[in-house]
């Protein structure tokens, strides 16, 4: 039976971020992608202007609360949540995760889309709602460097400080793993970092000309969720997700958009 993964995230008409990445990636992996939009935008803000709006809170809550009538929740192998449009959406997601877990087991991956480049993208109240409602429920989180530092209250400026921040978060929360994406380790380049409770941290470095591209973290998280749903072990899923994301990022012509469709075959090959 085809595995199912639920992704609660942004959707854009132009470009590739949020569910506009998750949907194609999971489908290429042979996963049934169940997509719930939190905001609907013409394009991500990197295009220069925000066009669109958050999905109304009652709509998001109604979809999530009614999913159990449409499909067996215990057949959903994983849940991912990313960019949110309101504080109320965090409560709807928290309620759904509790309902889903009551009927079985699975991995909840929180991509805490809070900000980048030293600043929050979201209102402080929404950031705090994610910390208070979703972080305690997460099995795995996939923050970028800024988000990891914000969550841990430890500035992240290198691989070493990312390890320190992740260790602080692991002590404070019942997390299985933290995957920090796009960590800049100075002369050692950019890479992704896996921190767990039982093993030494694992670093997956990009090529020397590695860079950050909008949607790159969404791509890594989507591949990770798909690999875990397919039964891969965490370390293997992380390395596959990191290397796949880095390959597609490196092949992208600009930092504004992933060259996702041109290289979706790289993802599909993982399912062979």
Keywords:
272 residues; alpha/beta; UDP-N-acetylmuramoyl-L-alanine:D-glutamate ligase; 9-stranded mixed sheet; two-stranded antiparallel ribbon; 9 helices; globular
Present the secondary structure layout.
Blueprint: E1 4-14, H1 19-28, E2 32-43, E3 52-54, H2 57-70, E4 76-81, H3 87-102, E5 107-110, E6 115-116, E7 119-120, H4 124-134, E8 140-141, H5 145-152, H6 159-172, E9 177-184, E10 190-196, E11 202-205, H7 216-229, H8 234-250, H9 264-268
Helix pairs in contact: 1-7, 2-3, 3-4, 5-6, 7-8
Structural class: alpha/beta
Fourth CATH level, the homologous superfamily: Ribokinase
What is the CATH class designation? Alpha Beta
- Strand % is 15-25%
- Can you name the CATH architecture? 3-Layer(aba) Sandwich
Helix content: 40-55%
Describe the 3D structure:
By secondary structure, the chain is an alpha/beta fold. The protein has a single domain (4-271), classed as UDP-N-acetylmuramoyl-L-alanine:D-glutamate ligase. The chain contains nine helices and eleven strands. The chain has helices at 19-28, 57-70, 87-102, 124-134, 145-152, 159-172, 216-229, 234-250, 264-268, and strands at 4-14, 32-43, 52-54, 76-81, 107-110, 115-116, 119-120, 140-141, 177-184, 190-196, 202-205. The strands form two sheets. A nine-stranded mixed beta sheet has the order 3-2-1-4-5-8-9-10-11, with helices on both faces. A two-stranded antiparallel sheet has the order 6-7. Strand 9 (177-184) and strand 10 form a beta hairpin. The longest helix has 17 residues, at 234-250. The radius of gyration is 17 Å and the shape is globular. The two termini are 16 Å apart. 48% of the residues are buried. The mean pLDDT is 94.
């Amino acid at each position: 039976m085809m595995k199912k993964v639920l992704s609660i995230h942004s959707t854009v008409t132009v470009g590739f971020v949020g569910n506009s990445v998750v949907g194609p990636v999971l489908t290429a992996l042979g996963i049934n992608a169940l997509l719930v939009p939190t905001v609907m935008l013409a394009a991500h803000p990197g295009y220069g202007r925000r066009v669109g709006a958050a999905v109304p809170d009652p709509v998001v809550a109604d979809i999530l609360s009614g999913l159990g009538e449409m499909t067996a929740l215990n057949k959903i192998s994983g849940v991912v949540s990313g960019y949110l449009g309101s504080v109320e959406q965090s409560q709807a997601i928290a309620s759904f995760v509790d309902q889903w877990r009551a009927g079985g087991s699975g991995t909840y991956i929180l991509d805490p889309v809070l900000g980048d480049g030293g600043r929050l993208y979201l209102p402080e109240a929404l950031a705090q709602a994610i910390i208070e409602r979703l972080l305690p429920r997460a099995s795995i989180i996939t923050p970028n460097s800024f988000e990891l530092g914000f969550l841990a209250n430890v500035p992240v400026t290198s691989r070493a400080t990312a390890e320190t921040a992740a260790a602080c978060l692991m002590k404070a929360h019942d997390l299985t793993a933290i995957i920090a994406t796009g960590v800049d380790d100075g002369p050692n380049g950019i890479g992704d970092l896996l921190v767990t409770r039982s093993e030494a941290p694992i670093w997956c470095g990009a090529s020397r000309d590695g860079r950050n591209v909008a949607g790159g973290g969404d791509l890594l998280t989507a591949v990770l969720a798909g690999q875990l749903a397919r039964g891969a072990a965490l370390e293997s899923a992380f390395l596959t997700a990191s290397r796949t994301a880095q390959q597609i990022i490196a092949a992208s012509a600009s930092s504004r958009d992933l060259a996702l469709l041109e290289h979706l075959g790289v993802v599909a090959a993982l399912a062979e």
